[in-house]
Input
Amino acid sequence: MSGAVKEPLLTRLAYYRHVNLFALIAGLITLYLVLRSGELVILVSNIVEGDTITIGLGEMEINVLGRSLSIPILDYLVISSKLSYLVASLSLITGSLVKDEELSKGLIGFKLPSMTGLILTVVALILMYLGGSFNPLSNEVSMALTINIGGRIYSIPISYSIKPTLNTYLALTANLMAILGRLAVRGKTNYIRRLRELSTSIFIPI
Amino acid sequence: MNKSFIPRLVNIILIIAFVSPLVYGLYLYNWDIERFIGFKASEVSVNISYTVDQVYVKENYIVFSIEIVNTGDVPLTIRRLDATLNATLDMQMHISSKSEYVFPEGRGLDVGESVSIDLKFPVASPTGGRLYFKGIEYMMELSLEAKVYGEPIVLTSVIKGGLSR
Output
């Protein structure tokens, strides 16, 4: 019977007893990132030395042309990201520990990757609104900053290089682990369903 | 309880957790999206101050030694200075002359940094001989072409003064 229905490799790797290790690790890393509130990505200016933009789950710092700027939405986006990551991490941890496969599948879900995607989409929309663009090939974010010089408006092109931090890699790992955890739980539920179907078909009287 | 109820509830909590701070922020900004998304930056000041160190005559030129100081907030690169001089020599003779000074490669000026240049204004002596005066009252219109972070700008200013010897 076990030869006919084989447990997927990913599921075998992910599970220790009934604990989904991938989802658990993803949840713990996310919880750590939320509690630590460190910077996720640092953008370093290619034009002005010392100009940096720090993006993270803590305080957002923007230094452009030697001045500190503030974009109100980013402060609220930090809170949004923090809260949603907190919920996603708790959901992942709970889902990884729950014995019931269906409930575990629902709780693990694709919550963390979809929240990351949503946050990145909002950031991209803000960047587009500010006339900026992101070039993944050169790993650069460029935008035109409108400044008022002596009553006249000038558009200054500025560009930033993306400098990843340890937290960037942790966030990437957490997202990858969450996806693998979700795929593993799907594999497990499918495996159990097939086993049940098989056992049912065996015991059906002809 | 239906097994899908808890995951659905978590999904709803997740969406509320993401959306509510943004909606609250927008509410605090009176639903003004432009103000909510836009920069809240103070004006960048680009200023240049001029000091006339010396005025002297050299051949048929009145030469102004001028110190240019970047008194603004940001570094800039100066490329060209055009000047129009209107002056009265010894309270009798009115002259008008133009001069230009070009920095072929551009001259970078950090905040607070200065550079000294000599602006030569060609002036013909009324007698045909050597130009000479004891006192000068002048008004100089200056137009400085510069670049701020690669963006060309023009800064105009007027300086007035007088010297006697």
In short: Chain B touches chain A through 39 residues (CB under 8 Å). Chain B has two domains: 5-37, 48-164.
